[in-house]
Design goal:
alpha+beta, two-stranded antiparallel sheet, 3 helices, 4 strands, 20% strand, elongated
Length: 88
């Protein structure tokens, strides 16, 4: 349980750090976000969060272990027990 809590804390902190860094570089976006909050909206805020996560992903790679006898990936046959890493 502590691992999950710690992992969640780190990813959230990293996402927030990148968001603040991006907003510092784009004061026009920050001004639009402030204006939207004053008006009670959330569309631009959600779009901003999604864009930051797209440009600066918290987790940039995912790994999967082949459990079947083999896994065909295009022209390659990956045997059981191998780990595939996918860049996100």
């Amino acid at each position: 349980l502590l691992t999950f809590i710690g992992a969640g804390h780190e990813t959230t902190a990293t996402a927030l750090s990148w968001t603040f860094e991006r907003l510092r570089r784009h004061p026009d976006v920050l001004a639009e976000l402030v204006s939207e909050v004053d008006e009670g909206g959330s569309v631009f805020r959600r779009q901003t969060i999604c864009e930051v996560l797209r440009v600066r992903p918290v987790i940039d790679v995912a790994g999967r272990r082949v459990e079947a006898a083999y896994f065909d990936l295009g022209e390659w046959r990956i045997p059981r027990g191998r780990t595939l890493l996918v860049s996100i």
